[in-house]
Structure to design on (226 residues):
């Protein structure tokens, strides 16, 4: 689990093919003395497992599924990446809860300056946009950001100068692909409401008194949630 608060830039030093997967050697500025083999590290938002460690570099295995869903399929040695180590439960959660499981990629549609912020419009598939709400959270390249507004095939975020300076988002240009992870809580709620995947009341349940087996919008309204 991560927060979307980037700790360091990293650089891909070497990429090895492993069938349809990849093995990446990544250099970074972090002190890795407290990191162990097997620990999770988010690289551009993708949760990866450290399989070997040096003082300022680490190696990760990347499964074919991860390669196919992320921008790593197009990256090469020298590419800059965002690095975040896994969350400690004793830490403050300054961003939002990020799983490191990339939903897919989006494309930067426009970049423009507004006062001290940079405004990014990002195009995404309609299915991904369905998991976004205005003022909700999204992770772009592992960076926790707030959604200004969203529409059926895209969304908009504001980037402050500090974020642009310490992450790869400041290096992006129109047309660049980026890794996207939508808010995990929103995905679970939508799944329950649209697919009937969370049975909480069995027929004739004495507490609900409704005789309904699935959560629905009408059930939530009757119980004061809407």
């Amino acid at each position: 689990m991560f927060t979307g608060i980037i700790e360091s830039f990293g650089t891909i030093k070497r990429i090895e093919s492993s069938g349809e997967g990849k093995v990446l050697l990544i250099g970074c500025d972090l002190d890795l003395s407290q990191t162990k083999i097997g620990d999770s590290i988010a690289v551009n938002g993708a949760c990866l497992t450290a399989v070997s460690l040096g003082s300022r570099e680490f190696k990760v295995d990347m499964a074919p599924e991860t390669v196919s869903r992320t921008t790593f399929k197009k990256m090469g040695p020298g590419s800059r990446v965002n690095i975040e180590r896994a969350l400690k439960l004793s830490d403050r959660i300054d961003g939002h809860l990020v799983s490191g499981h990339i939903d897919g990629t989006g494309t930067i549609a426009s970049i423009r300056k507004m006062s001290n912020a940079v405004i990014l419009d990002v195009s995404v598939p309609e299915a991904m946009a369905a998991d976004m709400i205005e003022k909700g959270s999204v992770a772009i390249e592992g960076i926790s950001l707030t959604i200004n507004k969203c529409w059926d095939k895209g969304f908009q975020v504001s980037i402050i100068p500090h974020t642009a300076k310490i992450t790869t988002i400041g290096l992006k240009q129109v047309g660049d692909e980026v890794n996207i992870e939508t808010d995990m809580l929103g995905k679970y709620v939508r799944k329950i409401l649209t697919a009937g995947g969370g049975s909480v009341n069995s027929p004739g349940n004495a507490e609900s008194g409704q005789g309904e087996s699935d959560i629905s919008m009408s059930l939530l309204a009757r119980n004061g949630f809407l």
The chain has two domains: 8-85, 104-186. The first strand starts at residue 8 and ends at 18. Residues 184-195 form the longest helix (12 residues). Residues 197-213 have pLDDT under 50 and may be disordered.
